[in-house]
Amino acid sequence: MDTKEALGRYLAEQRSALLLKVDGLSERDARLPRTPTGTNLIGIVKHCMNVEYGYFGPTFGRTLDDPSALVPDEAYDSDPQADWYATADETVAGILDTYREVQAFCDETIASLPLEAPGRVPWWGDRGDVTLGRVLVHVIADLARHAGHADILREQLDGAVGDRAPGDNVPDVDFAAYVAKLTELADRS
């Protein structure tokens, strides 16, 4: 497997892990803020969708035929968190469908360019000259971070864990006893 293929595989794995975290949730459960800063599962997905589009679209001179389902740049002027939640007019299913369209669009960019292809990330200022390879690594790291956030939020919601299917990469452990053990160790310190 060459480097580009490997990076594409890592990207696909992070996307899959992220989408798994909203699978089967109700509209309310997907939208409900789960942290003091309002982090919610469908908001994480919507953010990642807009991030991917920005990095694999305009950075390389490409745009979707109809980007109306994405958060426009000017929306951030009035709401800096505009891509972190589903609006009243959006549905979880609609955001997931749009994200899949964005993924296909981004995959076309990746497939059509060599890793050394130049691009320009305007919001990076002076360091905005990039290559496709650098952008791939950056986006994979960003998605991995957010997939980890989603993993914790989903576990807190209903106990679902795993990055490919529920429980698939988690050892068979008595977690109640494990948590009790860790709590006891923390209480001793």
Summary keywords:
7 helices, two-stranded antiparallel ribbon, mainly alpha, 2 strands, 189 residues
Tell me about this structure.
The protein is 56% helix and 3% strand. The protein has 7 helices and 2 strands. The chain has helices at 3-20, 27-31, 41-56, 75-78, 92-112, 132-158, 175-188; strands spanning 118-120, 129-131. It has a two-stranded antiparallel ribbon with strand order 1-2. Helix 1 (3-20) runs parallel beside helix 6 (132-158).
Task: Describe the structure in brief.
Helix content is 56%, strand content 3%. It has helices spanning 3-20, 27-31, 41-56, 75-78, 92-112, 132-158, 175-188, and strands at 118-120, 129-131. The chain is globular and about 55 Å long.
Structural class: mainly alpha
Tell me the Rg in angstroms.
18 Å
pLDDT averaged over residues: 94
Q: Could you tell me how far the N terminus lies from the C terminus, measured between alpha carbons in angstroms?
A: 48 Å
Tell me the total number of β-strands: 2
Beta strand %: under 5%
Topology:
Blueprint: H1 3-20, H2 27-31, H3 41-56, H4 75-78, H5 92-112, E1 118-120, E2 129-131, H6 132-158, H7 175-188
Antiparallel strand pairs: 1-2
